[in-house]
Design goal:
heterodimer; A: alpha/beta; Rossmann fold; five-stranded parallel sheet; two-stranded antiparallel sheet; globular; disordered C terminus; B: alpha/beta; 2 domains; seven-stranded mixed sheet; 11 helices; 14 strands
Chain lengths: ~300, ~325
């Protein structure tokens, strides 16, 4: 947050991430449609970004010295909204309007409606290049104190636009841009390696001229440390491949691609509780997860 | 009309200059006036005439390679940080290939990117149907927030480019490759959203855009001696359409003929028919491409083949006025 670096302990950050996960489940239940797996697995990364990594000010969303986060994978809107609300960009009560008529919380993020959004996204593959344009602009202005972060899905890497951007970012040595890839191994139609194999993903990015850092994307300290290391690497742009567990925190969703694009309570899924009990079970599991958070015991 | 300061030699030995060159000159001047102006190109710098800017301001020029999706989305990111990006390629590729990125990251996202579609229309000639972009007007006109500009000569293209640099909206500028007649002078007015009555008449309104305005003027001149007094309304901004100027003319003449070097579906002909259908239905005839692609050939051969010359306008005008 703003200039108060490290104002939260890891334990506090993990609890914030847990709150965000519970908000996601409640929002999706209320909305009746939307994506579950990605938002849940990204809760740690979004918490790390908004509560530690990013230089930003919820009271001044257009602050001209802020760092920028471009959310290329706009379908993870629930984690974006829940994080922005918990960070103070708007009242948390508004979260229950997700996907409803008249809401500022559109099914996919619309920049002009809500403070804190840097771009409109949903159609995949175009966030990395927008981030490139922002980073280029900062370079042209010799503005060396700001960073552009961008989150992408892994299924999203099927898009050609991503690799067009990857080449351009390497060409212009945009070391003020850090890409965080949510490597959860699933997309709508199945696992990424079944739908369209991405591996060897590290080798691909390296071949495109990037430095790659691989981390456990559900490890708060690892996310924060990787961002710090990425900022310290000046020779190349950096891609953080964040290995995450899709549906993280809810046992019956974890690792199951069926939860990519549906909310709790909408349909029966093999291996999961009946649909009218899914939300209750998910929230219960998330509450008990608080007890599993290592640092809370320390 | 005297206050329009049109060129005096339109009807005999006009001067020629490619419309795309006017864009190149305009962008260079826009770059001199405002350091926020930046330019991006997809491996067609000299073809699209963006090289004039790139040579003068190399630090404000971005070469994206043959990657039109990247072209417009990097442009969107630059605009997000306060730059005024002009992005150029052939119209067949931009906005031909990258329409969704333009829709989401520029129009819905409301970023004032300036998209230049060069080598549009039949004047692209020998390159053939793949490169003769005829659908760009329709593709851009359907997008909320987008402004669509089709200048009639290189001087107007230059003025349009300068106007785009200070316009806060996303803009599309359609420019042709071949040298075409210069109709205007440096004193001829140009304003985004305005149509201009280039020739006054009482029997028929010929509504034209881009390279076709020259042919419309020649046709109107010849029609007069055959008993039809035609008015020519030049429409360099197809969206937003200047309904006031068009309706004022049509209320007077009650006959309308449109001509464009593009698909009528969704093009100028579509726009005018929509306007008149709601506001003032009158007999209308639309010349342009009727749901088909072009082919290789000299521009003059193609215009003749597809019925887009002064002669074809005259035949259509007689048919329209007689029939009514």
């Amino acid at each position: 947050m703003t200039n108060n670096k490290k104002s939260y302990t890891t334990a506090e950050l993990e609890l914030i991430a847990n709150t965000i996960r519970q908000d996601i489940i409640k929002m999706l239940l209320e909305a009746g449609s939307g994506h579950s797996a990605g938002p849940l697995d990204l809760a740690d990364i979004f918490t790390a970004l908004y509560f530690d990594v990013l230089k930003h000010d919820p009271l001044k969303p257009n602050w001209d010295q802020r760092d920028i986060l471009v959310v290329s994978n706009g379908h993870v809107a629930p984690v974006v909204y829940a994080t922005l609300a918990n960070a103070g960009y708007f009242d948390k009560k508004e979260l229950k309007t997700l996907r409803k008529f008249g809401s500022r919380l559109q099914g996919h993020p619309e920049r002009k409606l809500l403070p804190g959004l840097e771009t409109t996204s949903g159609p995949l593959g175009s966030g990395l290049s927008q981030a490139a344009g922002m980073a280029l602009s900062m370079k042209m202005n010799h503005d060396n104190h700001r960073w552009v972060y961008v989150t992408t899905g892994d299924g999203e890497l099927d898009e050609g636009n991503i690799w067009e951007a990857a080449m351009l970012i390497a060409k212009y040595k945009l070391n003020n841009l850090i890409a965080i890839i949510d490597r959860n191994n699933i997309q709508i139609d199945g696992t990424t390696e079944h739908v369209m194999p991405l591996e060897d993903l590290t080798a691909k990015w390296e071949a495109f001229g990037w430095h790659v850092i691989e981390i456990d994307g559900n490890d708060m300290e690892a996310v924060i440390d990787a961002c710090a290391m990425a900022r310290a690497i000046v020779e190349k742009p950096v891609a953080i491949i964040a290995h995450t567990v899709p549906g993280k925190g809810v046992d019956f969703m974890e690792y199951d691609y069926h939860w990519h694009g549906i909310p709790v309570g909408a349909q029966d899924v093999g291996g999961a509780p009946p649909k009218n009990e899914q939300a209750k079970v998910a929230l219960h599991e998330l509450r008990t997860l608080r007890g599993k958070i290592r640092s809370e015991h320390e | 009309m005297s206050d329009l300061h049109l060129a005096t030699n339109i009807y005999h030995k006009p001067d020629y200059d490619p419309i795309r060159k006017g864009f190149g000159r305009g962008l260079l001047e826009a770059g001199r006036r405002d350091e926020r102006v930046v330019a991006l190109c997809a491996d067609l710098t000299s073809s699209t005439q963006i090289n004039m800017f790139a040579d003068a301001f190399p630090e404000r020029f971005v070469q994206v390679g043959v990657a039109e999706q990247n072209l417009v989305t990097v442009g969107s990111g630059l605009a997000a940080q306060g730059k005024i990006p002009f992005v150029s390629s052939y119209a067949a590729f931009s906005p031909g290939r990258n329409w969704e990125q333009i829709r989401t990251t520029i129009c819905l996202n409301d970023r004032p990117v300036k998209i230049i579609g060069s080598h549009a229309g039949l004047y692209t000639g020998a390159d053939g149907a793949t490169h003769q972009m005829l659908e760009d007007i329709a593709l851009m006109r359907v997008l909320p927030n987008m402004v669509v500009i089709v200048p009639g000569d290189s001087l107007e293209s230059e003025k349009a480019t300068l106007a785009m640099a200070i316009d806060k909206r996303p803009n599309y500028l359609r420019v042709a490759r071949e040298a075409t007649p210069i109709l205007t002078t440096k004193d001829t007015p140009f304003e985004i959203g305005k149509a201009y009555v280039y020739a006054e008449g009482t029997d028929l309104t010929i509504i034209s855009t881009g390279t076709m305005t020259y042919h419309a003027l020649i046709a109107a001149e010849r029609l007069f001696s055959t008993g039809i007094d035609a008015e020519v309304v030049h429409v360099p901004t197809i969206k937003p359409l200047d309904g006031v100027t068009i309706l004022k003319s049509v209320h007077k003449t009650k006959h309308v003929l449109t001509i464009e070097e593009a698909q009528i579906n969704g093009g100028l002909g579509g726009a005018v028919a929509e306007l008149l259908g709601e506001e003032f239905p009158v007999p209308i005839k639309r010349l342009g491409m009727r749901d088909r692609f072009g082919e290789s050939g000299e521009p003059a051969e193609l215009l003749e083949h597809f019925g887009l010359t002064a002669k074809h306008i005259m035949i259509a005008a007689h048919d329209l006025v007689k029939k009514a």
